[in-house]
Structure formats: C-alpha cells, structure tokens
Amino acid sequence: MIPKIRTGTGGTYGLIRYVFGPGRRDEHTDQHLVASWNDFAPDPGRNPHHTIAQLAAQLDQPVKAIAGRAPADTIWHCSVRADPGDRHLDDNDWANIARRIVHATGIAPKGDTTACRWVAVRHADDHIHIAATLVRQDGRLANLSFDRRKAQAEARLIEKEHGLRRLNPGDGTAAKNPTSAERFKAERTGRTETPRETLREAVRQAVAGADSEEEFFTRLREAGLRVKLRHLPSGDLTGYNVALPGDRNRTGEPIWFSGSKLAPDLSLPRIRLRLDSASTTGTPEPGSRRARTGRSTPARSRRDAAGAAERAAAALGRDDDEAAAHLVGAGEILDALAQTSPAATRAELRAAARAFERATRSHVRAENADIRALRSAARGIVHAGSALGRAEDGGATAMVLSTFVLVTLAAARWHSARGHAQQAAASRQAADHLRSAYQRAAATPMHTMREIGRALPEGERRRHDTTIRTVLGDTATPNTPTREHDALAAVLAEAEKAGHDPQALLEKAVDRRELETARNTDDVLVWRIRRLADLPANPEHPRTRTSPGTQTRTGSAQARTAQSAPARPATDLRRPALRR
Question: Long-range pairs for 147-154 at CB < 8 Å and ≥24 separation?
Fold first, then answer.
C-alpha cells in the first residue's frame, strides 16, 4: 500500500472537482465519499442535491475564518493505493484506512473534535484520495512534522493487519519517483519512461569512473543532454541542471532537473566528494597492457573489474560500515558495464544497474574507505569502449558477471543486517538480472569448457576429479568420472599445462570467498581460476587449434573432414599401467 502526499495553495475546489470528475482519460467511476471529518459531509457523487462547490466550501471554512493569517500551503492531498495483487477492499475497509492515515499524520487525531476537516473519496477499486485543509477548526495550524514518514509507517501496519502485500519500509534515501503528470506525458509522447528516469540513468553513467568535474560534464554533453551550470556571483560553480532535448513545458522552455532532484547522491557536492575522495588519477589505463597480454582492451578491463569486484565482496563480508563506499564503487562498475555491454546482455545489465542504484544509498557513511580500484575499473571499462559478445570479450564479460552476482548477494546480506529492507530487496533484484545476463554471456565458453572436460584422457580426468572432490569435501568415489565437474576439470587441466599446481589453485579459489550463495559453485570456481591463473577467458576448443603457420586451405579442409568424422577416444599412454 502506497500513500503519496502533496500540499498546495488556494482552496480545495480544484482538487475536489478532479477527484469527483471523470479523470484525465475517463478512468474515474462511481465517485463517492467513504469517510469525512464528521461523517455528514456533502457527497456530490451519491447525492444529486449536493454539489462540489458545497463540499469545497465546508472544507475551506476554517481557512477563510483566519483570512490574512493562513499558511502558505492550505491543502493537504494524500492518495492511498493498494497493490494490484491485493484482495478487494470495500468502502468500510477504505474508510478505516483513511481514518488511520489522518490520525497517524496529525491531520485529524482520533478524538480531536477541532482537528482539520478532511474527506476520503473513492473513484476506483484500488485507491482513495484524502483531501484536507491545513487549518484546524479551532484556528490553529496542523502539525505536519514528518507526515510522509508517519503515513508510510502506518501503511506498513495496515498491510499487516489487513493481510495485504507488505512493502519494504524506506529510509528517506530513495530517489524521487516520477509524478503522475510526468508519467501521463511520457505515455502521451510515446516514451517508454519519463525524462526524469532517463536523465537519472544518463547522469549515473556519466559519473562512473569520471576523473574530474570537467570530464563528468563532457560526458553528459556527449550523451546528448542539455547541460546548464549554475554559478555564484563570485563565479564559483555551485550546481548543474540537465534536460532532454525536445522535453519542453507549455511555454516552450526546456524542463530542467538539478542533480539532487534526480537522486540524493547526484548533486554536485555529493559528486565532488566522490571525485575528491576516490580520484583515479595516476592509475594505468587498460590499453597500456594490450601489447603485453595480447587481449583486447574491453576484455582486459573486465578482468580487472572482476578482481576489484571480488575485493568489494570481501569488504561487504566483513560487515563494517566502510563497506558502504564499496557499494558505490560497485554501482559505478555496473553503470560502466551497462553502457558498454554486448547487445545480448545490455537490457539485463541496464536493469541490474538501475536496481542496484537503490542499494548504493543509505544513511551509513563510510569516511575512510578506499575505492580507487573500483572507480579505476569503471573508468577502464568506459574508456575501453563497447565489448563484443564473443571470443575473449564475451568470456571476460561472463567472468565479471559471475563475480558481480556474488557482490549483489553480499550487498543484500549487508543491508539486511542493518534493517535496510528496500536496499536489500534491490540488491536481490539486481542479482536476478545479473544471473540472466550471465547465462547469455557464459553459454558459449561454458559449453566449450564442458566439451574439453569430457574429451580429457580418462586417467587425467580421474586425477582432476579426485582433486575436486578432495578440495570441495565430496567423499564419494565413483568408479567413473562424474560429468558434474566437466568444466572445472577442464580449467584445472588447462591451468596445469600453464605450469600451475591444480590443487593449490583450486584451494586458493575456494578460499577467496564463501560459495554458499552461488547457485552453481563450479561456474564461480571456473571463472575465479581462469582469472587467478591468467588463463584466456574464452577457451579454445581442441578441434579449432592449429600450429602456427600451418593454417592453409588444405589444412582447413582436413580440419573440416576431421570434425565430420566420428570422434575417437583420446589415447592415454598411462592407461596400461593403471590396468595392471
């Protein structure tokens, strides 16, 4: 149940006319009162002898009685909406809900016969409108201290007592939702979302990994936004506003939003704190490593981000307040991934970044946390540009997404431990989107690794299976290698060929972080080992390998012939000795 409160000036006639009217799209039906301050207020919806003017005049009487001393805001409007999945609420239910809301907020405390005048109007099955005046009948002004917070708290109690869907309580750190007028305008102009939501995402992406204010504002302009800077008379920059091209008001002027109106942490002072406390100046650009590694810049930047994200997950596991800063840094990496991801994962990553944005804000402040590595990783991803959905880019994307699923789950536990219900729910929602993106990115490389694992010589496969079972604590000793660990056996074999000790490497991967939250432990360990051992993120299938300088047309034809021929079991020179 969602109560939404607004205040305004003037008389109540316009508001009463709207709630008893047909609505902007004729959506209002059976308009009528369900409750009022005295239970005898005129009802223009059900009584043909009553008028909207009569009802508005009775509501406004206390305000007119103190003409000249009335407050700036005289109208209090609260809409209370049930969840679409809630049971049907009748007029008596809504009347009870209305009385509880006006009591909790101080509009009309129970038993106070000289409180503010109010009415509750129902014109749809799922919500009511409460209209009140802010001058009490005894001439005093209403006490509206924390009325929005009190309304939300009462709504949580109502949900519990009426058996309705229970929403997560907020803490005042959420970004402002679009208004009804903004949503109606978006629908009318054919937009899938409101300008406020589009701008919020664009500003978040512009600040991800930015190294200075100048770079931040440059990114905003490059994203196609209108940018207006605000200066003091001294010339000092004090803030900024953004607008979407073509989004104008009735007079043809651009509709500007300040950063703080988009989200609390997008104001210029808050962005400056992020830039000053976690500058990426002096960090090497990922492109400088390309010659050494032979990997593409997007792939290298994603591998770096996976390592930074793993350390952030470890910080969240320590359960101290400094982890709050790591949430901000992790959010920047997600924003960077969302704007440079392959097409197959872009929608899910954008949804994950939008959900996780709520998890990055709470009342917990981290004063000394060092998140330069996270911001540097975000910067590297942005500067590396868009990644491909295949080859090394695709594998590295799967690697970082596998790690980020664990980061978001660690964030959910961290927030839950502090009672941050909305942030914990947002973290879990982000994890769901990341899992979907991971499944798309990992499908090809994981399939290749499973095929490599199945093709391993039997003796080698048994040896790696024994290592896996020893390290993971599985005491079963099947007569034949299990297919459960095909990909993990393949990566251990590849690491061994690269000169690593498979058991020591697996133990290190397991010790890096807990695995209880992983839906597929093998997937997590596969990507962790590939990163620790610096193995290619996109493994090469044995059938596609060729010796340098031998890739001729004849060789290609022979390779195709070999692929079409029945596969022969791999030969293991140690097998006769094992049989003896």
Answer: 147/5, 147/76, 147/105, 147/106, 147/107, 148/3, 148/5, 150/104, 150/105, 150/106, 151/3, 151/5, 151/78, 151/101, 151/104, 151/105, 152/3, 153/104, 154/3, 154/100, 154/101, 154/104, 154/105
What totals of helices (H) and strands (E) does the chain contain, helices first? 22, 8
Q: Is 256 exposed, middle or buried (0-12, 13-18, 19+ CB in 10 A)?
A: middle
39-54 b/e (C-beta count within 10 Å ≥ 16 → b)? eebbbbbeeeeeebeb
Task: Report the distance separating Cα 272 and Cα 295, nearest Å.
Answer: 34
Q: Which residue has the tokens 């010339």?
A: 235
Average pLDDT of span 391-397: 93
Which residue, among 258, 230, 254, has the nearest Cα to 244 in the 3D structure?
254
Split into its structural domains, the chain has a count of 4
Last residue within a domain, chosen from 277, 295, 328: 277
List all residues 6 or more positions away from 528 whose beta carbon is below 8 Å from its beta carbon. 310, 403, 509, 512
Region of 95 (left: φ > 0; alpha: ψ -120 to 50; beta: rest) is alpha
140 versus 518: the higher-pLDDT residue is: 140
Residue 93 tokens read as 């239910």
In this structure, the answer to whether residues 227 and 328 fall within a common structural domain is no
Dump pLDDT digits (tens) for 64-89.
998 878 888 899 999 999 988 889 99
Q: In this structure, are 9 and 43 located in the same domain?
A: yes
Q: Which domain holds residue 245?
A: 192-277
Q: Is residue 241 part of a domain?
A: yes
Pairing between strand 118-124 and 127-133?
antiparallel
pLDDT per residue as tens digits for the range 467-494: 999 998 865 545 555 678 999 999 999 9
Kindly list the strands in the beta sheet with 2-8, ordered across the sheet, starting from the edge strand earlier in the chain.
2-8, 75-81, 127-133, 118-124, 32-36
Question: Do residues 202 and 271 share a domain?
Answer: yes
Determine the 3-state secondary structure of 447 from DSSP.
helix
Rounded to whole angstroms, how far apart are CA atoms 115 and 133? 10
* 229/336 same-domain check: no
Angstrom distance (rounded) from CA 14 to CA 86: 31
**Residues 26 and 146 grouped into a single domain:** yes
DSSP of 220-255: HHHTT-EEEEEE-TTS-EEEEEEE-TT-B-TTS-B-
Give the range among 213-227, 374-388, 509-523, 559-573 with minimum mean pLDDT. 559-573
Q: Does the pLDDT at position 539 exceed 90?
A: no
Q: Report the candidate in 90, 260, 268, 73 with the shortest Cα–Cα distance to residue 175.
A: 260
pLDDT digits (tens, 9 = 90+) for 130-188: 999 999 999 999 988 899 989 999 999 999 998 988 877 777 788 888 877 788 888 88
- Quick check: is 265 in a domain? yes
**Does some domain include residue 572?**
no
Do 141 and 72 share a structural domain? yes
What residue has token string 């990163």?
A: 531
Q: How many residues does this entry show for the chain?
A: 580
Token pair in block for residue 218:
């440059």
Measured at the CA of 572, the angle between CA 484 and CA 566, to 5 degrees, comes to 75
**CATH number of 129's domain:** 3.30.930
- β-partners of residue 76 are 7, 132
